[in-house]
Amino acid sequence: MALASGTKLGQYQILAPLGAGGMGEVYRARDPQLGRDVAIKVLPSALSRDPDRLRRFEQEARAAAALNHPNILAVYQMGTHDGSPYLVSELLEGSTLRDLLLRGPVPARKAIDYAMQTAHGLAAAHEKGIVHRDLKPENVFVTKDGRVKILDFGLAKLIDQPHASDPGSPTLTGGTEPGVVLGTAGYMSPEQVRGETTDNRTDLFALGAILYELLTGKRAFHKPTSAETMAAILNEEPPSASQIAPATPPALQKVVQRCLEKNPAQRFHSASDLAFALEALSDAGTSPTSAFVARERRKSYWWIAAAAAVVLVVIAIAVWLARPPAVPVIESVVQLTNDGQVKAGSIEADSSRIYFNEGPAGSFRIAQVSITGGQTGEIQTNLLNPQITGITGDGSSMLVLSGASVASSYSMWMVPLPVGEPRRVGPPVRDANLFPDGRLLYRDNSGLYSANPDGSNPRKVALSDYDGVPGISSDGKKFTFHQYRDSDSWVAYEAASDGTGLRSIFKSGAGLPTAFCCTRWTHDGKYRVFRGTSDGNRWDLWAYPDRWQFFRSQPLPVRLTNGPLSYTSFATSRTGDQIFAVGVLRRGELQLYDMKTHRFLPFLGGISAVDPTFSRDGQWMTYQAYPEHTLWRCRVDGSERLQLTYAPMLIDFARISPDGTQVAFSDHEGRTYVTSMQGGAPRKLADHASAPDWSPDGSLLAVVSFEDNVFVSKVIDVRTGSVSTVPESKRTLGPWFDSQDSIIVTADDQSKIVRYNFKTRQWSDLVSSPDKFVNWAMTPDMKYFVYSTGGNNPTAYRLRVSNGVVESIGSLKNLHSVDEVESGPSLSASADDSILVTRDIGTQEVYALTVKWP
After folding, report:
1. pTM of the model
2. Which of 36, 101, 100 has its CA nearest to residue 74?
């Protein structure tokens, strides 16, 4: 739609067309109210019917309007004319950098000036949480008086929402889905090419490519096709600018190289840092001859020497800032154990031995191996399910927690090394660690405490609102912990050992894992190491400096490993050059226990799946793919398979409705959903609700919730979504309906199985065990309640619901089963009341990772 001269758009009068601009046509117009000429970009009506084009056009308006900076195009107003949206902005006279580059490279002095102004504009945008994502010479305008203006925020992305009270807060709403590639080939960062989440450093890569082109007249990455260009961005380094333009100062070449680093962590950490480095180069470029003449005229030789010293200092700072910070690198990975045993829990190390947990959940034991590898041995204790959680600085004792596999609290014990009788210390806790001098750091339901080695003189140092075992610095002066927020973000915090000086040190986001935990310091205290995941399946090791260098912005954590092993637990060595970690390759095999032969046999070909559940008519089943945690359904013979959920949603505890038409399940964040057996979008029923089970008439779901630091059983009305708490159900786990009027649960210390009757409002005990209950499930016909115990001889049982009679099914001692909490139960019941388990056929061994620290 072309607009004729004289056309009115609101208060504006069209004067003349100026050509195409981004997604629309640009016109010169007159604002009679303010007596000034403006530029109006109009999105043609044909394009405005494209939701994506319209969204990008509106996003450009919102992003630019939220920014008030001399190096960003000023936007005055947005309106609509005959169904076509338009954008009113300041009128610019001059040329884009693309127009200037048609005449060849520009002098280094001008290139520095243009890049420096662009960096200042980007810094203003980044401070508002806006990333441009399509920076290129066409989108950088130079006015006749030399002022740089950044244009076209159509692909901008909001990465950090400012505080709601900020009147200048942008209101971008359209984010890019992971895996979607947006940008212009040749100026896209490697993370853009891969479709990964981007942050402000992607704009710095694009600005580096523009600066390279300004200096050399050639594009840094340019191939015959876009695909080849993007491949070059990922895998190739451009020739240095000084090779093409020999007059390029070395310090400027280093700035360009740092902007074009493949790893975002090695680029400048902010546009402000880049602008500072360019300003330093600009100052250093002042002609020494003219300066000398000026000072000769004033006969002030002292000032000449001072100015020269300042120039040298500025150049040195610029060169130093341009140099990418050194990052730690894994030099080798060596397998230390080869015993084929399940390894879970924590891992600790002294100067000669590594200590770790082996065995299935509920039946942990403590194992050890030399730091150089070899045969593993067991440290005998009489403790139930001992879980390693800390070791003293001198290696003389180990802190161990004892209790059920899933419980609200555990008892603390000090175990002497290499042998000795365990000694109980302190009160029941949720988790704990040791200071190097043997003092305790533990968390209970009310907060985080430090105490003497025997548990006496406890002192609260923090509230209990955090997750995971707190990490303690090698000198014992600081501790760190992480916290999960309801907004699906994770934050790492640090405080002094007395709890003062609490501060956040980093959070999940662009370029970082979506979840992380278990921070430990290196022995010299220079680095923190933690593990993180972005998909919930594989965990990698990351490192983060304890302190950063003067003048440099706070660095981001660096990924040390990138698969294929998933590292479930780790410890840093006393020598400081190694990390000892349990590396896992996950693979399961679904098996059915044959009651006649007393053997486990592959089921459905031994697929890698957990938590199979069956319809009442025995014709259909669902299962979770392992380790992906996606939900599938199929017929009991394996035919007609259909995937019901997709990543990044991670599933556990799925159950088919009594009529066979729906599936209820919970995700790893503790939310309960219902979806159709025919597929489609899941419907969320409740937050803070896990392990759903249907009532016989399909109207209710029994769930477990974690509230006020204890487990509690609840019931959801599927029709209304209302949630009610089962009376006196605090400290109960895993409810199952055994009739329309009653549920069966376990106590949260997993010592007994009990039933609640909704009619009589009474609880009654069914069975108890000193070995604790690990997994439990109801058979599809509701005749049996099957369960397994832990301890030294894990065993499977089934309880006949009608009369309470218990029979032993068989020992699970030699079965390495998948029984992580987040994987769902490894014990379930088939349509004919046989039990199903998932045998772990992956590998779990201890590895030594040698690290080269900067």
Report:
1. 0.58
2. 36
